[in-house]
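Our consortium's second objective concerns turning raw sequence data into structural hypotheses that experimental partners can test. To show how far this objective has progressed, the report includes one record in full. It was chosen at random from the queue rather than selected for favorable results. The single chain below, 346 residues long, was entered without modification.
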Amino acid sequence: MGSRTLSIAFLLLWLHSAAQSLPDRNWHARIPMELNIGANLADLDGEGFGQVLGSVIVLQSGVSLTRKENWGLSILGGGLLDSYTYSKEDVSYTVGLLSSRTEARIFKLLPLSEVHESHLKFSIGYGWVFYADDEERELEPTFRAISNSFDRTTAQIIPEFGVSKRFGPHRVDLAIRYQASIQASGPALRTELSGTDGSFSTATASGDFLGLSIRYHHGFPERQLIPLRPPNPGTMERQLDEVFIGSTHKRSVKLILWDNAETDGDSLDIALNGQFIHTDIALSKEKVRLKIPLTPGPNELVIIAKNEGRVSPNTASCLLKTGKRRERLLLSTSLEENDVLRIVRD
């Protein structure tokens, strides 16, 4: 079990790293930290013994990816503790089974309240529990118990239904969860109970349980734009010439600029939503490549002539990449007029 646990840990660490370096699409990568609390019962055959509801605790973590806060998938792994309690007269016996597990899950989010950024969440998971050989013996005044677990891997199907709420880049889930074993070659835990009065019972446990899942998804905030300098009201109050209107699912677009005519000392400033993000861009035959981060909703990208060079106006060739779409634009700015690109991030 140790090597399996170590393999799961390395896989999850790799997924954590890979999630943070996803290509720039409208995916949200988060690290879920999950606690499941549930109840279970074993199949008890025979006479003279009883049982009470056992408890289940699951702790696991992994990585979750959400597409446009609409649907997504997650991979998690961690530890599982099953406990079962049997009794005879006033004496009880509890046996615990510690194992490692992993699961892959796909989920769907349905809007519940746009104001509170909450959703109904439906999901289905497929997982595996890795059991190991072990034995425990207990001698009580009125009975004897022998519990055995077995070296096997059990597949499980795990449906969930609940609510999910967003807090900035983070999410919190609260869901009802049912874990059912499938393709099991035998019980996960077998306990033989024999009483001093000749009674005998056998309890077999499969690892199934019904419980409550509490899950916190730690998100990664988008990089905030830091203005290089305060906007100059004079330059921002120039007339605007709209040279592009479009939309994209991307978190950023790429802007490539170069001088399409004689290099005469033209230079540009660029402002996004009222903040200067690039200044003193000198235009030449060599292309300048810029990555422009976008905020959700409408974005106003203003191209401002810092000067007009030796020949007026300030002209430049521009290639705008908004994902698969490429737009070739001709920019022409002056000390009286700015060019503006309006881009809506869906």
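The partners drew two points from this record. The chain has two domains: 2-219, 233-345. Confidence is low (pLDDT under 50) at residues 19-25. Both points have been shared with the crystallography group to help prioritize constructs.
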